[in-house]
């Protein structure tokens, strides 16, 4: 069995590395400064929201979802996502959150996708998938 990423996975890894190099790495000191100013280790600095817009426009959004759904019509394989998660973890405070691929939200979104009622999906899943909560 090959553990190499697929062609699509490699394309996503290239896009992710470009995102990290051009936006994430330069944003790290901004993140630290904004977190310090917030004075709350659970605060949500503005830089995260700025990076979310860019990740979404680059096609680096909700890549964790392994199931084909109305929100993820062409999911990434678990093998490809393993490589993506490894690379995104190099900036663990920024990259996963910017890509809407950070715990605990990822697990909650998967559970709601598979087992949530329509009411739960409308109230919780859609805003989670949109990175709004």
Short description:
With 133 residues, the protein is mainly α. The chain is 62% helix and 0% strand. The chain has a single domain (7-101), classed as Acyl-CoA dehydrogenase/oxidase, N-terminal domain (Butyryl-Coa Dehydrogenase, subunit A, domain 1, Orthogonal Bundle), CATH 1.10.540.
Write the layout of secondary structure elements.
Blueprint: H1 7-38, H2 46-57, H3 78-88, H4 95-98, H5 105-115, H6 118-129
Given this structure, which CATH class is correct?
A: Mainly Alpha
The H-level CATH homologous superfamily, spelled out, is Acyl-CoA dehydrogenase/oxidase, N-terminal domain
Number of helices: 6
In the CATH hierarchy, the third-tier topology is known as Butyryl-Coa Dehydrogenase, subunit A, domain 1
Largest sheet: none
What would you say the CATH architecture is?
Orthogonal Bundle
The helix/strand order is HHHHHH
Helix content: 55-70%
Describe the structure.
The protein is mostly helical. The chain has one domain (7-101): Acyl-CoA dehydrogenase/oxidase, N-terminal domain (Butyryl-Coa Dehydrogenase, subunit A, domain 1, Orthogonal Bundle). It is 62% helix and 0% strand. It contains six helices and no strands. It has helices at 7-38, 46-57, 78-88, 95-98, 105-115, 118-129. α1 runs antiparallel to α2, α1 packs parallel to α3 and α5 (105-115) runs antiparallel to α6. The chain is globular, with a radius of gyration of 15 Å. The N and C termini lie far apart (39 Å). The relative contact order is 0.15. The model has no long low-confidence stretch (mean pLDDT 94).
Supply the key terms.
133 residues, mainly alpha, Butyryl-Coa Dehydrogenase, subunit A, domain 1, 62% helix
């Amino acid at each position: 069995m090959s553990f190499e990423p697929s062609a699509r996975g490699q394309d996503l890894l290239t896009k992710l590395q470009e995102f990290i190099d051009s936006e994430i790495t330069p944003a790290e000191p901004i993140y630290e400064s904004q977190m310090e100013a917030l004075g709350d280790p659970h605060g949500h600095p503005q830089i995260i929201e700025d990076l979310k817009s860019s990740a979404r426009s680059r096609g680096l959004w909700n890549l964790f979802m392994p199931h084909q759904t109305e929100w993820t019509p062409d999911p990434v394989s678990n093998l490809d996502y393993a490589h993506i998660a490894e690379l995104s973890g190099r900036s663990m405070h920024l990259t996963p959150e910017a890509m809407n691929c950070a715990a605990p939200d990822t697990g909650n979104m998967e559970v709601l996708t598979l087992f949530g009622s329509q009411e739960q999906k409308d109230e919780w899943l859609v805003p989670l998938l949109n990175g709004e909560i």
